[in-house]
Amino acid sequence: MTITHNLGFPRIGVQRELKRALEAYWSGAQSAQDLEDTGRELRARHWKLQAAAGLDFVPVGDFAWYDHVLEWTTLLGAVPARFAQSDREPVALDTLFRMGRGRAPTGTPAAACEMTKWFDTNYHYLVPELVPNQSYRIARRYLFDQIEEAQALGHRVKPVIPGPLTWLWLGKGDAFSQGATDPAKLDLLDNLLPVYQQVLQQIKELGVEWVQIDEPILGLDLPPAWQSAFKVVYKQLAQAGIPILLATYFEHLHENVEVLNGLPVQGVHIDLVRAPDQLDDVLAVVSDEQVLSLGLIDGRNVWRTDLDKARALVETLAVRRGDRLWLAPSCSLLHVPVDLDAEHELDAELRGWLSFATQKLDELAWLADSLSTIPSSTSQTALQRQRLALQGRKDSGRIHNKVTQKDLVASADLDRNRAPFAQRILRQQEKLGLPAYPTTTIGSFPQTPEIRVSRRDWKSGALSDSAYQAAMRKEIEHVIRFQERIGLDVLVHGEAERNDMVEYFGELLGGFAFTQNGWVQSYGSRCVKPPIIFGDVARPAPMTVAWSAYAQSLTEKPVKGMLTGPVTILQWSFVRDDQPRETTCRQLALALRQEVVDLENAGIAVIQIDEPAFREGLPLRRADWSRYLEWAVDCFRLSTVGVKDETQIHTHMCYSEFNDIIQAIAAMDADVITIETSRSNMELLAAFEDFQYPNDIGPGVYDIHSPNVPDTEWMVALMQKAAQRLHPQRLWVNPDCGLKTRGWAETEAALVRMVGAAQALRYT
Question: Which residues make up the binding site for L-methionine (predicted)?
Answer without folding.
Answer: 442-444, 495, 610
